[in-house]
Design goal:
About 30% of the residues lie in helices and about 20% in strands. By secondary structure, it is of the alpha+beta class. It has a 5-stranded antiparallel β-sheet, covered by helices on one side. The chain starts with a helix and ends with a helix.
Length: about 140
């Protein structure tokens, strides 16, 4: 893709703080640095989001995530956890439309990053839960 900032980064047209590269992925520091070490992992092949991955690309990209995560863990021994996030489409907060995975080391509950999943279990009866599961299963 000619006007994609992440394609330009992986091609070396735009400088980045590279932390890892191989034939499949390019990993570099997110300029926002939500926490120290916040890294983006992008496939070198342009895909807009998870919905454009084929099984081969998904297996190759996601197989590299633990290796990069372990390097971050080793580099930042004060980190007590890590969020791994992949936003897909604008409503889900994707802002660059070249698929990317955020690896965000977590140092404390006060490190200016929060993900909170509310408990909505009371909103769905067992019959509604079964209907949702059946609908998803039928989509395969």
């Amino acid at each position: 893709m000619t006007d994609c900032i992440f394609c330009k980064i992986t091609n070396g047209d735009i400088p980045s703080y590279k932390v890892y590269e191989d034939e499949i992925v390019y990993a570099f520091l997110d300029l926002s640095q939500v926490t120290a070490g916040h890294t983006l992992v992008v496939p070198k092949q342009h895909v807009d989001d998870i919905f454009e991955y084929d099984e081969e690309l998904a297996a190759a990209v996601f197989a590299r995530i633990p290796k990069i995560a372990r390097a971050l863990e080793k580099a930042f021994p004060d980190a007590k956890g890590m969020n791994i996030i992949n936003n897909n489409k604008e409503l889900a907060y994707q802002s660059v439309f070249h698929s990317h995975i955020h690896l965000i080391p977590r140092y404390s509950q006060e490190d200016d990053f929060s993900i909170h999943f509310g408990d909505h279990s009371q909103q769905y009866s067992p019959a509604e839960m079964q209907k949702i599961a059946d609908t998803i299963r039928a989509a395969f």
